[in-house]
Amino acid sequence: MKIGYFPGCSLHGTAPEYEASLKLVAKAADIELVEIEDWNCCGATAAHSMNRMLSIALPARNLAIAEKMGLEEVVVPCAACYSRLLFALNEFKLDEKVRMNLQPIIETEFKGNIKILNVLDFLEKYVMDALKNKVDDKFKKKAACYYGCLLVRPPKLTNSERWDDPLRMEAILKKIGIDSIDWSFKTECCGAGLSIARTDIVGKLSGKIIEDAKDRGADMIVTACPMCQSNLDMRRGAINNYLKKDNNIPAIFITQLIGLAFGYSEKDMQFDKLFVPISFSNNNFSNNNDNLKMQKSKVKEVKV
Amino acid sequence: MQNNMTEIAENPSKDTYYSNDLQKWGAEIKNKDISLKELVFNETGEKVSLCYQCGKCTAGCPLSDEMDIAPNTILRLLQIGSKEYDRKVLSSYTIWVCLSCETCMARCPKEVDLPAITDFLRSESIRRHLANRKANNIINFHKAFLHSIRGSGRLYEFGLVIGYKLRAKNLFQDVLLAPSMITHGKLKFIPAKVKNSSQIKEIFQKTINNNRGGK
Amino acid sequence: MTELQNIAKKLFDDGSINLLIGYSNNENGGTSAIFIDNSADIDKLIYNENCHQNLMVYFQKPEVKKFGKLAFVVSLPGLKSVLEIASENQIKDGDAYFIAIDKDGNPSLLQDFHQIEDFITNNQTKPPMGLLKLMEKINNMTREERWQYWTDEFSKCIKCYACRSVCPLCYCTQCITDINIPQWISTESSPIGNLDWHIARAMHLAGRCIGCGECMKACPVDIPLALLTANLNKSIAIHFGDEPGMKADYKYPLSHYKLEDKENFIR
Amino acid sequence: MARIGVFICHCGENIASTVDCGKVAEISSKIPGVVFSTDYKYMCSDPGQTLIKDAIKKYKLTGVVVGACSPRMHEPTFRKVVASEGINPFFCEMANIREHCSWVHPKGEETTQKAADTIRILVEKVRNNEPLYPIKVPVTKRALVIGGGIAGIQASLDIANAGNEVILIEKEPSIGGHMAQLSETFPTLDCSQCILTPRMVEVAQHPNITLMSYSEVESLEGFIGNFKATIRKKARFINEELCNGCGDCTLKCPIKKIPDEFNAEMGKRPAIYVPFPQAVPNKPVIDKDNCTHFKNGKCQFCKTNCSAGAIDFDQQDQLITVDVGAIVVATGFTIKGTDFFPEYGYGKYKDVVTGLQFERLLSSSGPTLGEVRRPSDGKVPKKVVFIACAGSRDPAKGIEYCSKICCMYTAKHAMLYKHKVPDGEADIFYMDIRAGGKNYEEFVRRAVEEDDVNYIRGRVSKVYEKNGKLIVRGVDTLLNSTPVEIEADMVVLATASVAHSDAESLAQKLHISYDSYNFFSEAHPKLRPVETNTAGITLAGACQAPKDIPESVAQASAAASKTIALFSQDLLTREPIIAVSNKSTCVGCFLCQSVCPYLAIEREEIKDRNGNIIKTVASINSGLCQGCGTCVAFCRSKSIDLQGYTNNQVFSEVSALFERSEEYV
Fold first, then answer.
1. pLDDT value, residue B166
2. Which chains have at least 3 CB atom pairs separated by less than 8 Å from chain C?
3. Is D394 an interface residue toward B (CB < 8 Å)?
4. Per-residue pLDDT tens digits for B106-137
5. Residue D55: which domain range?
6. Of D450, D469, D498, which one is at a domain's C-terminal end?
């Protein structure tokens, strides 16, 4: 079974572990991910902040190429890219002006028949069944499933039913024996859009998320978006700065966990790429002292 | 190049690249009778009159305390439709600090698409050279981002950060994160490029120059 | 003796029927209806592919009814009309025997509506391709072209009412076109009168027509009349999901409200 | 040969300012058969009526067309005029040249011409009219009241006190409705049960009232004065005649943990239960779904412990048919759940409750005996946040309309809470305060000024739990839209009032109309606010729209007075505008029967002299037929005609439209 795949810049940049784990999970479920040829950036917040048509045209080019490749579905693991691609497709379907103007801009024929799957759609549709009997004792850790904004919002676009209290990730994790906590910040914003320009805001928003997950006894935060994950994982400086204390709760991709359940190693799942380390090989988290030290020293330095 | 960059960094509204359609739309903008709320309706299809000022958008906004004007007040100012208030909206910091997290829209009892309105207000703000100076960093980041993908079709983080730093004149922020990103294999020095990069440039050319920003 | 004749003979012999309506060869080398009231004439009874007339049209005739116990030789469309008129309270279970001819030409005796329903379900046939093609062609026309097409067709009508006479569902003792106070439909074959008649006829058959196509075959000027009712049936099936002639307790969709009925199709 | 008179009314300036009335009269005079035609300023006035009478005498008129306002307004007036001159009143027709011409078109030649056309059409109708005679039908002087809340109780008592029989049916095991659940009532703060229970007892003891609790309407046939209702008396598995209401059975029931409906699921009840101590009738009911005996046949504790021997596990639902002359629908409302508001955490956090649940916490008969204690740990909450409009005025997730009662009960809740917990704090998030009622505004101000309730104008975006506290994140729009975060011990949601889930099917059973929210529709929003479009059926209380207690009671009395007025007559006079079938041409397809909304079409067997059935035809019950004409439209052989609007009349009206000739204009 072949399904289209749009990695987006993050999976080729800051989140290689997400791509690696997703690909191996797909392989385990007997799915071949076909990368969209010569894909381009979806434009992200910058494009829709500056120009609407640009924010439609950039994703639409990718969709048009995917259609041309004969793909019926395309997996978009990055929630931000997913949102932009879905938005472009939706506008193409609903706005006649867009339909008329798009073709000359992207210079490719586009019919709008393609289906866009986010990573949860993909896991539910193609991987869930293969996860039977994958419950493993080593997963006895409590997860805080973090969805962020764009997997669920705007509800009309994403078609999410329980957008304020989604339970899809929880259901997937349950399949591999991971219990999830009930918490309040599942769909709060982590501040990704201002990651570089206003790092202080990221510290505050992501800080609140990490604090609640920790307070409610989560051992790890599970994400399905490279932007969320990178903020929660890499921005510990700003986060700890806001929280005024250090936090070592890891933020991991859902695909990394599922990969483990399929029997891949932590090395295969590129656990080494995570800033805040986690390991399932023994019953405790490997609190790598070096890493912690690095976190601490960074906090100090940023304060200066 | 560097000079130009600096000048723009100080006042992004002077950046002619993102507002060179001013001439094209100039006539319309000169037509002062069109209030911003009508423009919002024409360009996004959103009716600001739907808002009954319950404030749920502001209550749910993760960034409302960072904003100079509360989201519901933005809608109220638009509803009144005076020139003074329109200007106030377009020169607000609010429209730039908005993260597009869509919480306001998802919670709004009247389903006003505030994120779509905000997107339009941003481009209109630049077009009218009214962008809030406090938002320079944010605007510079967006421009650096678009500059990066305009060039290579994909985001080149290292280049983006460098480009942004040049625009923002804030070379040392985040530098501390870079080494660990490199050691974790998360930052690449060689940009990945789209083969058909001329097509990407075309897309930029045809959209930025021909479109107001809204519908 | 053929199997068909055997069945008929048995019905007469045990006194089950007084009249059998079937097909026989006529002098013109074709087939026509034959009314057999005693077993002596049974050898005239035949069935072949030329026997298409829907004999159920005779069921409501007083001259036929007075015989009391009846039997009909019917193929699929005839049986469908039995169920349809049953749903309209015109025939009760046990009113007549039906010698059903399946698609291979084999006869079997059906006595109750259940058997008929099963027979129909097991012997479904597709409408002729030619008809479907013509229907598709007309449906693909613009509204103006369609109007022109039917205006042209109706202009040929000579108001002979053969379409009405052969239709097993046109059983009203007083047809709307026979009423003159008020004169709903003008009697002469003027363009407006023709249009009036065919629209009234089509609307009266909408959702009831079982598609035997007799109207079209009987038309001396070859107006493709069955298309009108077939297309109306299609619309009704799309909106209400029901098809006439399949069940004896068919609830006519245009007069029966179901909670799940769509109400938004009227725009 | 018809001799028709045409009378054009100016309606003061209403018609005359747009239509040239003189010209219309002149044009009309040229229609063949019209022997007299005139116009006059007020045709409905005394001189106008005299004018018509004089003309009838002088010109020996056989028919009259009055061109004036809507027949709804003055048709009875003019028909009476015509009848007083000895002509069958149905030879008088009205042409509505006001609503159909002058009010909707500009002044001009074309409008005048349309008026003239309208007159011509009616002249053609009158020419084809036939004399008709009113139909008299008897009235059953017994009312059916559906719903035993305060509205149904009030209506029943009023009708019964006027000397009429009443059957009051209630679907729950006890009457009392929502009012029985309330603690105290705004704006007087008197105890809800104290004022309600005497009425409940009065109902139970009234000689004219038959109370059927735990019963629902199964179906309804008939028409005003002559309804036939089938009522399903649900099996309560108690022989009500034997039961003495001692309550032993409820104490012995081993099942004790079923969420208690009366306490809005804040308390628990056994499987055999009386909903509340003051219930009327005070007889228990067995909840079959939760009873061990019905589940596996292993328990009969209640039966063995019943000294009266009243437990009857074999009881079945009973269908009871009653004849009634009028119906009062008082089925009330229900509370919309808050599942559609996941952001407020209802169902997820125990201390987020609905207004009705809070009402039970305040009530001395409630699960906490009137002490405000939070459901999670039984502690007295020191900070309670009330959220108004939790569902109302929210087209995106809830309902579009204002539920009307929430502003007041929220003020009351906050006030009562402060009275019970004087050191507690009460915050109310609101959008607008709607306190338009006698002493209502004063009540809300009292909450603010005397009881220190803190009103915050703004909506809450999210409620979440942190460190055992409920964090309420809202905004104060009066303070420059400042975000507000309140750490609360308890959150009360003023959920929306909505129609019952079965309101639509009840409306269809009763043949009454309902709006898009499934509230039942009144016949006219201003002038007939308690009647439905179906004659003989009236509405009372919140089944029509959200209402508070005084309004419900007022409407119940209004519905009762309509019913009593109906019962003051022995015979009802009905217009003879009914359908008749032609039995010789009817083929008996009974399409008419399947479309008749009034079940007025019956099957009639036509027999020959020897008694053999020749055919079965449609026959129309003149008592049931309402003259809607649906059957006429469906009859393929045109074997049904509507008296007063026969096919021939309508056809000639339509034909007349095409006959406008130059000479008339």
1. 67
2. D
3. yes
4. 999 999 999 999 999 999 999 899 999 999 98
5. 4-134
6. D498
Domain count, chain D: 5
pLDDT at B204 exceeding the cut of 90: no
Q: Are the C-beta atoms of D465 and D377 separated by less than 8 Å?
A: no
* Contact between chains at D638 and C88 (C-beta distance less than 8 A): no
C90 touches chain D (CB under 8 A): yes
The verdict on D454 and D539 lying in the same domain is no
**Are residues D424 and D485 both part of a single domain?**
yes
Q: Which two tokens stand for residue D623?
A: 């008592």
D591 to chain C, any CB pair closer than 8 A? The answer is yes
D 635-654 residues with CB < 8 A to C: 636-639, 647-648, 651-652
Give C259's contacts (C-beta < 8 A, 6+ positions apart): none
Please answer whether residues C82 and C54 qualify as being in contact, where contact means their C-beta atoms are separated by less than 8 angstroms.
no
Query: Which residues, at least 6 apart from B157, have a Cβ–Cβ distance to it below 8 Å?
Result: A9, A13, A14, B187, B188
The CATH number of whichever domain residue D221 belongs to comes to 3.50.50.60
Based on the fold, state whether residues D194 and D329 are members of the same structural domain: yes
CA distances to A47, C263, D402, D407 from D433, in Å? 43, 38, 11, 6
So what's the pLDDT on residue B209? 63
Chain D residues within 8 A of A162 when measuring between CB atoms: 342
Sort out which chain A residues have CB atoms less than 8 A from D470's CB and list them: none
Q: In whole angstroms, what separates CA D487 from the centre of its chain? A: 43
Chain A nearest CA to D473, separation (Å): 12
Whether the complex's predicted ipTM surpasses the cut of 0.85 = no
Give the one of D396, D398, D459 whose C-beta lies nearest to B59's C-beta.
D459
Domain parsing of chain C, residue ranges: 3-122, 129-240
**B102 and A61: CB-CB below 8 Å?**
no
Is B145 at the interface with chain A, CB within 8 A? yes
Distance of alpha carbon B49 from alpha carbon A137, whole angstroms: 56
Average confidence (pLDDT) over B8-21: 48
The rounded distance, in Å, linking the Cα atoms of A198 and B74 is: 22
Residue D202 shares a structural domain with residue D289? no
Q: Which domains does chain A have, with CATH numbers?
A: 2-119 (1.20.1050.140), 135-296 (3.40.50.11810)
Chain B residues touching residue A51 (CB < 8 angstroms)? 18, 123, 207-208, 211, 213
Are C182 and D651 in contact (CB < 8 Å)?
A: yes
